[in-house]
Amino acid sequence: MRRTALLVAGGMVIAAAAHGDLGGLFRGGPDHPAIQYSTFPLRDPVAELNRKIRDGKVHLDREKNFGYLRSVLAALSVPVESQMAVFSKTSFQAVRITPRNPRTLYFNDSVSVGWVRGGPVVELAAEDPREGVIFYTLEQRPAKMPQFVRDDECLRCHESYSTLGFPGTRLGSVVTAADGTALNQLGSYISDDRSPIEQRWGGWYVTGKSSVQHMGNRMVHDSNLADPHLTDASLTLESLKDKFDTGAYLSPFSDIAALMVFEHQMRLTNLLTRVGWEVRAAEYAEIRMGLFSQGPGSEPGSAAVVQDMAGELADALLFIDEAPLTGKMEGASGFAEKFAARGPRDSQGRSLRELDLTRRLMAYPCSYMIYTETFDALPPSVREATFRRLWAILSGAETSEKYARLSLTDRESIVEILSETKKGLPDYFQPVRRDSFH
């Protein structure tokens, strides 16, 4: 069976190229000796859960209507409040997906779970700290000891031009017909924290409050003309109870706050994976092939790769290219509160998980993804270079105009929070000097 994207909502190739992350495709391939994507021992959360099930430490319960979904979410500590509903036919289970029977997605920092009512499997994408995103399925049929099966068929779409040549995820926004069929000819976009809100969430349901126009909740009934009956009221769905039978789902919401956090997280997940792979491949080449000097037109050495990767990653962690919000947004599922409660918090009670949703996504513009095992598992060279780049920006030593969007208060708060909450933070992260800014 040909499978398409677990976490994608259609039409990715053109839009992905437009964002231009990291200057092109990863050329080493997943089975590069420094990567070994297919064979390296895994320690992602799903692989760990499989081991616990085999050892008898965890038991998955199956329900008539949801199969193993609820039990899987609980075992992986994935909150139901993170539910997002996709009605575009952009999954390998497309035949089952309609606006009356949407696919739902759930996530935490390291795992995404996909479910289609009546579908044969639960779909999972788990972040291994070294290897990146690993794809799994879990059969919904009753089993004495259910096991997640690694499913590399997903790589037909998840390792492509749209994912920059390595296994990754991309969220899309696409115009859909009334039955959920993607009408790519009418527009399709990548959705991440750099995308204008006006281009986000086509093919997705969106609940909560928004004063900003977006593509969510909308369909086209005439492929030559947008539905004239669509109004701004669709921006502010309180719940999905009028769209489909929400009693057959775990939640009546597709939370706008969850959607915005998820978009950011998917971009950072991809970026962290790509950075690790590029640096490992470059360092392997120097060690194995003696590429300590470079001639004209040759590949860059690892030092140059490290600096490029660190610069890109630091900018993403600090939301430097984030699209600004022009109005207030507010979720209704309880996701924002549950997300913020995870902390960690500093002595003043501040956390990098606090959402803003008025001017920008986060109250303090430094990504919570800096706490992940994937960040900590980066090659030491690029992890240290990223810390140094972060400090250069936050301290004011880096004076490029694009960093002016970080106010002095932002910089002070970020450094103070990181100093108390981030393990392994270098000692040179000291209180920001106000006389460093002019």
Describe the structure in your own words.
This protein is an alpha+beta fold and 438 residues long. It has 10 helices and 10 strands. It has 2 domains: 13-255, no CATH class; 257-424, no CATH class. Helix 5 (256-289) packs antiparallel against helix 6 and helix 6 packs across helix 9 (380-395). The relative contact order is 0.13. The model is unreliable at 1-20 and 291-298 (pLDDT under 50).
Report low-confidence residues grouped into runs of 5 or more.
1-20, 291-298
**Spatial separation of the terminal alpha carbons:** 60 Å
Helix content: 25-40%
Biggest β-sheet: strands ordered side by side in the sheet: 1-2-3-4-5-6
Average of pLDDT:
87
Instruction: Note the run of SSEs as H and E.
Output: HHHEEEEEEHEEEHHEHHHH
If you compute it from the alpha carbons, what radius of gyration comes out, rounded to the nearest whole angstrom? 22 Å
Number of helical regions: 10
Q: Based on DSSP secondary structure assignment, what is the total number of beta strands?
A: 10
Approximate strand percentage: 5-15%
Whole-number count of domains: 2
Structural class: alpha+beta
Q: What characterizes the major β-sheet?
A: 6 strands, antiparallel
